[in-house]
Specification:
The chain is an all-alpha fold and 325 residues long. Helices cover 68% and strands 1% of the residues. It has helices at 3-8, 36-70, 87-92, 96-127, 135-147, 150-160, 166-173, 190-215, 219-227, 232-243, 245-260, 264-269, 281-291, 295-324; strands at residues 73-74, 82-83. The chain has a two-stranded antiparallel sheet. Helix 4 (96-127) packs antiparallel against helix 11 (245-260) and helix 13 (281-291) packs antiparallel against helix 14. The longest helix is centred in the N-terminal third of the chain and has 35 residues, at 36-70. The model is unreliable at 1-20 and 26-31 (pLDDT under 50).
């Protein structure tokens, strides 16, 4: 072969690389056409859920939209409504009575949420691991307030706090008669007395949630901690408390929103008195809606309470998810 042949000879082109198969965009697999049978099942499920969804929309969503609409008006429920824009919402944060009720709610949060959760954790530490004699009766007694309606609870405690009630009788019997008073009629003690009722009511729920959570913790963790020389206190803070983050979030959400919405307990026991020492936003909502009709202001209070409860639930859920991540 001559050199000219080498020059004129062209090299064979290199083989083209195989085409890279790219994954489908936009979730093509999720848009895969459903079979007629699957489509029928989907529509059948929607048909079964439609009555419940319509009922929920009629009972819950429609009143919320109506309340939002009413909150922009000044209306006594009878005469022609007058558009006031955001004035009702501005009044909520400038009205001294409403601001005082918000301060009362903060006090109730301590009694309705923080103290019951602390006592519930203490009960879970005592009852959650192993069998303690009489634990069943103890749990039943603590959970009893959850079975009773709030009105019954309020009537019972109103009798206990009465001037001649069991509490004052017990104080006189042990020589502390100077401390006896009409607890729900005292400007200083009426709000803490209400808070004690909330603590008694909410503690059972917290205890049941936490005891159930402790029962789900693997026993091997406690055995390993004991082998490492951990005592009961270290076991609680190292194993029990971290394992109850989800239950604590649920209990905190329920109890805090319960304090924000407190009405029936306050109405039956004190009706906001003496004076305004136990008023709450929910109680003022009732008064403005039915006793001294100002439907627009009542609707604004309801909308604000709903938004605050929603924000509290979202914040607690987000914090619990971040800690669990």
């Amino acid at each position: 072969m001559t050199s000219s042949d080498l020059v004129q000879r062209t090299e064979a082109p290199a083989a083209a690389p195989a085409a890279v198969r790219r994954p489908p965009r936009g979730g093509a697999t999720s848009r895969r056409r459903l079979s007629p049978r699957a489509r029928r099942r989907r529509w059948l499920g929607l048909a079964f859920a439609a009555p419940a969804l319509l009922f929920y929309g009629f009972v819950v969503l429609v009143p919320i939209v109506q309340s939002l609409n009413y909150s922009f008006y000044s209306w006594d429920g009878v005469s022609v409504a007058r558009w006031v824009g955001l004035s009702n919402y501005v009044s909520f944060f400038t009205d001294p009575a409403l601001l005082e009720s918000l301060a009362h709610v903060l006090v109730l949060v301590v009694f309705f949420a923080l103290i019951p959760i602390a006592l519930g954790l203490f009960s879970a530490a005592l009852l959650g691991r192993g069998r303690t004699r009489g634990s069943g009766v103890y749990r039943w007694l603590l959970f009893l307030p959850q079975v009773l309606t709030s009105v019954v609870v309020a009537v019972i405690w109103k009798r206990i706090y009465g001037p001649d009630g069991p509490l004052n009788s017990a104080l006189r019997a042990v020589g502390l008669g100077d401390l006896a008073k009409n607890w729900l009629g005292d400007f200083t003690w009426a709000l803490p007395a209400l808070g004690v009722i909330g603590t008694w009511t909410a503690m059972g729920l917290c205890m049941v949630l936490f005891v159930a959570g402790v029962a789900a913790v693997p026993g091997e963790l406690y055995e390993q901690a004991r082998i490492d020389g951990a005592g009961p206190v270290r076991e609680f803070f190292s194993i029990t408390l971290p394992s109850l983050k989800g239950q604590i979030a649920v209990a905190l959400t329920l109890t805090v929103t319960g304090a924000l919405r407190a009405f029936d307990l306050v109405w039956v026991t004190t009706q906001g008195g003496p004076g305004t020492s136990t008023t709450t936003p929910a109680l003022l909502l009732y008064r403005k809606a039915f006793l001294n009709p100002d439907v627009g202001m009542a609707a604004a209070i309801g909308i604000i309470l709903a938004v605050v409860c929603l924000l509290v639930a979202l914040i607690i859920t987000r914090l619990s998810e971040e800690k669990n991540a």
